[in-house]
Design a protein that fits this description.
The protein is built from 16 helices and no strands. By secondary structure, the protein is an all-alpha fold. The longest helix is centred in the last third of the chain and has 18 residues, at 172-189. The radius of gyration is 18 Å and the shape is globular. This is Ubiquinone biosynthesis protein COQ4. It comes from Sphingomonas kyeonggiensis.
Length: 254
């Protein structure tokens, strides 16, 4: 009986080669079904190259970054501790995140499950500094929704946040998704409101402080308004205009 070849082991220390064919196929599926989150992770793996490695190396250079890297807190386990989440005072980032969980039905462990499905994000489970950074980037995604004000349960909010994330991380996969959604919106709506909101998300990401360098266990206890001011998170005015435009057209997505 012939034996199956052993699967190729990934080394998180080696940047993934860009796979444009995989990225375009995944983008097509994502644009056809904006709720197919697995395709986001496929695009990240196909296009982000060494973005996570660069983020980790940058983390070591910022204040408190070395401590965060040394401690290697797994944020998914913290963010699924409901007793801990319930302890945050009203007005804090943690309280806003609690409201986010309750209103959307999303969860940190749900995001983990999607990232692990069908090998969409291979290597993220490894015991390696870069793999830990990849998990950290995944786990703070919904916190960024809360901090920026971009809703997670709508295609517009996700498109704006991926543009923000592209500006923050340089991960080409984020930019690829944002641009694809923005171009599709022009075809569907015949207007530029959605496109302008995505462009605003990118500008806000460039203007904001580097959010990867934050201690999120501490940040969750801070007042949300103060965090937005401290991190220079811009007011998403174009985003609200696009929301109203889609609502007036009777569109919940694109």
């Amino acid at each position: 009986m012939a034996t199956q070849p052993a699967p190729q082991m990934l080394n998180p220390g080696i940047p993934m080669k860009r796979e444009w064919g995989t990225a375009f196929r995944a983008l097509g599926r994502l644009l056809a079904n904006g709720d197919d989150t697995e395709q986001v992770f496929r695009i990240m793996r196909a296009l982000n190259g060494d973005a996570t490695q660069k983020s980790y190396r940058k983390l070591l250079t910022v204040p408190e970054g070395g401590r965060l890297a040394y401690q290697r807190v797994e944020l998914a386990s913290r963010l699924t501790d409901r007793e801990w989440i319930d302890g945050f005072a009203e007005g804090s980032v943690g309280a806003a995140y609690r409201n986010f969980l309750d209103s959307t039905g999303y969860s940190a462990d749900g995001l983990v499950e999607v990232s692990m499905s069908a090998s969409a994000f291979q290597g993220i489970e490894f015991e390696h500094p870069y793999a830990w950074m990849g998990r950290r980037e995944r786990d703070i995604h919904d916190l960024w929704h809360v901090i920026t004000g971009y809703q997670a349960d709508e295609h517009l909010g996700e498109a704006c946040l991926v543009a923000f994330s592209f500006a923050q991380t340089g991960g080409l996969g984020w930019g690829f998704i944002g641009l694809g959604a923005a171009l599709k919106s022009i075809r569907i709506t015949r207007k530029l409101d959605f496109f302008k909101a995505v462009a605003e998300g990118y500008r806000h990401g460039k203007a904001a402080r580097w959010l990867h360098g934050e201690d999120y266990e501490t940040l969750l206890a801070e007042p949300l308004d103060q965090v937005r001011k401290r991190l220079n998170i811009g007011d998403p005015a174009r985003y609200r205009i696009a929301q109203a435009s889609l609502e007036a057209a009777g569109l919940k997505g694109i």
